[in-house]
Amino acid sequence: MKLVSLLSVLLTSLVPCMGASGQAAKPAARSVKTSKPNVIFILVDDMGWGDLDSNWSQQKLNGRTVERKNEFKTPALSALAREGIQLRRHYSAAPVCAPARASLLLGVHQGNSRVVRNNRFDQPIEDSHTLGTVMRDAGYDTAAIGKWGVGGGGQSHVPMTAGPHQRGFNYFYGILDHLAGHFHYPSESRDVFEYNGYASNPEWKNIKDQVPQTAYSTDLFAACAKQWIVDQRKSARKTGKPFFLYLAFPAPHGNLVVPGVPYPSGGGLKGGLQWVKKEGTESVNTAFDARAEKNKDTYIHPDNSRFPNDVAKRHSTMIRRVDDAVADLIRLLKDLKIDDNTMIVFTSDNGPHNEGGSDSRHWHGAQNPQFFKSYGMMDGIKRDCWEGGMRVPTLVRWPARIPKGQVSLHLGQFHDWLATLADVAGVPVPARSDGVSLLPTLTGHADQQKPGIVYAEYNFAGKTPEYKDFLGEHKGAQRGQQQIVFVDGLKGLRMGVKDADKDFMIFDTLNDPQESKDLASSKPELQARMKAAALSNRRASLPSKTVFDSALVPAVDVKGTVSPGLQWALYEGDFPWVPDFRQWKKPASAHGVTPSPSVKMNGPAKRGVELTGYVKIPEDGAYTFYLTTDENKGSKAFVRLHGMELIDADKTYEPGAEVSSDLGDRKNPVYLKAGLHPIRIGYVGNSGTASKLVLKWEGPGLSKQEIPASAFSHGKESR
């Protein structure tokens, strides 16, 4: 093909920066800080939507009012709700911990998670952008404290190649493997690790022998978090850096293990939990309490001692201990005078559990979610894709920006947090992220919120429990391969999928959270669109094979005629990664049409280009795509077909190398129907010399070759 100049434009001015949705930003809740906020992301383990006391207020907002006969208080979390926003329709990525944590950290839903899906516990997440890398590269000090579970080792029986220190966190203190989360006195039987990237010779260390066996995990990790914040603020006087803390408590996961002593009085700098060095050990002050050894695993919070069974007392006490730790942390922020400009996110990894756990030393039976209606007004628990297994308690507080007392029913999911925190930190959302920034919703500008996607898939050979308050058709429902997709605000759910063409049940979960009325028979057109959306927003993940992997992704209908070539937009900037330009706040400097991606691109030295349109697939079948950029330093690219991740030439890419749509050396073809398929290509380059992309394909009747310009077009997609 003859090479022509694509971007021979002279840039003379830029349009002023707009808000996150392209509109001018409204005044904030309080005085907007010019500095980046600190961020604390608190993730608990197996706490149900109904375990959060504030979710039971204003039940008219929940779509269904139910009686909660037994309740326990979470006063600090209730205060967090009053002082910020409740996200009552926020979804985990999956109804079990490992895939949920992988998607949260990577900012992708389960359809685009390459390694961790289903029950792949302790498998190392891929080397891609994470909450840690994005915040670190945005100028934050980063720490992960508590449970990791996606780094290797443990049940995966593979080397640790994705520890927190290898995925963007400067500091880590906690437990690495999944099963360690069952042991709430972790050093009794499991390893405890520390990594300090600020040390002169950083090393990954097993410090189990330095942790007293009387150290209760919630106390241990909360005290470590407090001390890390104190130390970081001291160093911040010189560096000026804000902090990002990912604090992952194992509670209230089974086993149902409680502390040995009451929560220390006070809080903050001088009270509450404190970090203590004593006799060659470092731990929380409660571990050195004289009563700790004698009374280990016996303390029940006085408010919860009235419950008639030990299991209920323990479950509620475990959550109350987390609640006390949250109050302690907020007191610390106030003592340090950083509370106003610190954003706190609190959520759980999935719905409530009914498990006893793996710690034989501390066996107290299995949790019964029915007692507290831990699933709220919904049906389903952990490992169910019914609402009760997927919808999770979520609160966000940021006094400087988030108005008090909000309750949002906006749909959101775990992969939205990477986009949101990137927005908060003032850096572009990575193109690989499936999420959208929730900042407009959080800050009271829901009218400016970009729509996102809610998608999940999970395979587990079990059944929904036959709880008495669940609907008859839900009791004992076969789980198997489950899949969720939302279209037009309605939830499509299919369970026990053995055929990719199986119909979805369709529910209006805003007004029918129990999923009592299946709307599928009245919405045949929506059924077809849900099936198309379910297939076009995911890729196969080897070795986790599903019935969806070889199903042909439908082509799209296009309104009117299409025109030759791809549309392009030029953005000026020194981009650290390929952005999702749809969420970039600065407008494009120039627009145009190019015959194909392989046309040379000239322009400013530091730039990004987005190419959009369609690629015409000539015949039904399996296709592999290949991409090569120029060899210019800093050249990167990312390609999506529909909503699926097609080619990643971003974080670990070497300019000039060829990468494919396969998973490394494992074949992973894309199955497509003949016709037009939407394509989106992002490119960034930091060199003043001309740059180019070469996109190739191979498929039915096609040897590996460059995609001809005649295959590319642009137009307006119909619904």
UniProtKB/TrEMBL annotation:
Keyword annotations: Signal
The UniProt record lists the keyword Flavoprotein: no
UniProt keyword annotation of Aminoacyl-tRNA synthetase present: no
Domain PA14 intervals: 561-711
Lineage: superkingdom: Bacteria
SMART domains referenced in this protein's UniProt entry, alphabetically: PA14
Pfam family, one: PA14
Gene3D superfamilies per the UniProt record, alphabetical: Alkaline Phosphatase, subunit A (3.40.720.10), Toxin - Anthrax Protective Antigen,domain 1 (3.90.182.10)
Residues making up the signal peptide according to the UniProt record: 1-19
Protein name in the entry: Sulfatase
